[in-house]
Recover the amino acids of this structure.
């Protein structure tokens, strides 16, 4: 296994699963994850109501490529301020830090309500959407497994521990191999 440090991309987790096997992988990587799926495109109005999708410049394409398959564990960072919420944004005092100009300093937060993961927009400038519905106010909203999340121009998919394992297992073995239930 050639990965040094914590795995960061789905392809890294595929290597780890291959090296550890399913049982050890599931024990080591419990929890919830955000997986980068791309950038939100912007639609432009051109020529009297005809709409077109704006083409990305090379910087945007580089940002999209860096995000694709990037995995962010949803967990408290020991160096972040203590508290019940797992925060995400540009600032170094967040649990999940992403240096992206369309994210607010403290963009959103995750918290648990009994056994459900909840997401809260923290008054961000560019907003947070879950399955294309904009979060309003600073109220916690349940985050269903496999939800699509948009923050600023970034798009993620939320995966529970089991869904994350299934995604990595399928990438390693293909969709024709049954997923082991351990």
């Amino acid at each position: 296994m050639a990965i040094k440090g914590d795995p960061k991309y789905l392809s890294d987790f595929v290597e780890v699963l291959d090296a550890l096997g399913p049982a050890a992988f599931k024990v080591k990587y419990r929890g919830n994850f955000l997986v980068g799926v791309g950038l939100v495109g912007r639609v432009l109005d051109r020529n009297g109501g005809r709409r077109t999708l704006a083409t990305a410049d090379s910087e945007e394409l580089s940002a999209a490529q860096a995000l694709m398959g990037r995995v962010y564990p949803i967990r408290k960072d020991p160096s972040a301020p203590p508290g019940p919420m797992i925060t995400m944004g540009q600032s170094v005092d967040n649990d999940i830090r992403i240096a992206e100009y369309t994210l607010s300093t403290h963009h959103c937060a995750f918290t648990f309500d009994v056994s459900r993961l909840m997401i809260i927009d923290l008054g961000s400038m560019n907003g947070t959407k879950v399955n294309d519905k904009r979060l309003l106010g600073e109220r916690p909203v349940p985050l269903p497994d496999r939800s699509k999340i948009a923050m600023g121009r970034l798009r993620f998919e939320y995966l529970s521990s089991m869904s994350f394992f299934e995604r990595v297992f399928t990438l390693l073995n293909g969709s024709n191999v049954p997923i082991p239930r351990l």
In short: The domain at 36-173 is CATH 2.60.200.20 (Tumour Suppressor Smad4). The chain has a mean pLDDT of 88. The two ends are 23 Å apart (CA to CA).
